[in-house]
Amino acid sequence: MAVKPETDTIVGSSKFFFDKYSTFYNFYLGSYKIQNGAALNNTIVQGYDCTTVGTQAMPPSWTNTTDPNVDFDTQGRVYQTVLPFNAYWTNLHPNGEITVSYSDDLGDHWITGNGGQPLEKSPNESSFSYKFEDKQWIAVNHFSGNRYADHVYAMWTVFSGCCNQANIRVAVSRDRGQTFSKAMTIVPPKIDQKFNTYVYPGIDSTGTVYVAYAAFPPRGGNSPAETPATEHLWVTKSTDDGVTFGPFVQASTVGLLAGGAGDLPNTTFRDGITENFAVSPTYPGHLYLTYEDWDGAQFDVKFTQSINGGATWSTPVTVNDNAAGDGTDQFQPSVAAGPNGGVAVGFYDRRAACPSGPSIIRQDVGRKNFCIDTTVQAYHDDGNGAVPVGANIRVSKDTWDPQQPGLLVNADGTTTNLQTLGGLGQMACSAHDDPCTGSFIGDYFGLAISGSNIYTLSVSTHYGSSVKAEDGSTLYYQQQVLGTISRASAGI
Fold it and tell me: Residues 459, 471: one domain?
């Protein structure tokens, strides 16, 4: 999600699962128009619609679009880098491409930028060969009067074969999305011979573009000096409008679940993106990095920062304030920086046991390290770095069950559909199977700060839908929920 500068107008984006086929991971990108805390509209991002009637060329007809990310320019145009793709089981070519879409009416209508042409075309090989684009993000210079104002920086990863190479790419628009420069690779080969992905760009008021990314070990583990389940977080920058990048500074080392992005304990949903990154709009060179850190038994959320443009980084500190060693996971963090030194870290939080209620599967009531809340920690940066203000704040009103709609985790780890529609389970299922064995709650969630508020856009299954399962019971689908914390109440 992104806040229009100097307002409380928001555009959010997420995957929209549609029809009854969520168990086969079918979705399109959609956007939300939010003003003064009220959701006014939501719509599918246009321009990528699948058709069987022959009225569109191929492309742009795609089965899916993905990876929500949004940012505003100084004139109220909102942009996102888009990955349209064809579901892997079809093995259609092209498998996917990288594009940019923009909207001048807060997401009601979207236009494909770059003259409708992709920023990165699909590799010639099939996606079965593990060659594809993914994990894209966007940043826009929204500092009026800056020499690079309204320049748009789109970044993504090109995976090149299973599973030892992944390159981060960038393309820049200097005419508000009408055209983009030829894509180039950011990270030179000599920097951390790993699997580079999870790219997050950000911009400060001088126009410097900062980039954080994660370097995974190639499949098979790291060098002998490291444990097999760690990754490195790096930050680099460009002072010439995205033409060159450097130096490259390792900000932290992160503990991973065994096997990388595996499923979290007790439940079936997969781990998301490791880290998130924000740049202060108030203090040039002040950078904030948060990440989930697995210690072998649980996830904690960590925070590190730089006040010298990424040259050096503070010792990471734990953000979540649950009882030490309670065995619960705090994970999938986001960080945002707003005007006047406001900073916030948000994360999913499993410290509370599952409550009872109609939205909680009966067998899940009382389970620990299972159900989820959204939590925020506020910070204030007075020019000397961000310091925490107060304790963790629970944003979600209701703890929610990640196994809704209707997917029971049995004692032996197998799954059973408790509810079906059209003979199919209704879980959002990244494993593409039924009953679902690997579910999806998103790889990250939205966090933004205006002059007045901290906003979250995160998942909940607490709210019943109007759709009934075949047995007549209510289906509790995942929904996006807007959370609002006034900066005054948070002390920032």
Answer: yes
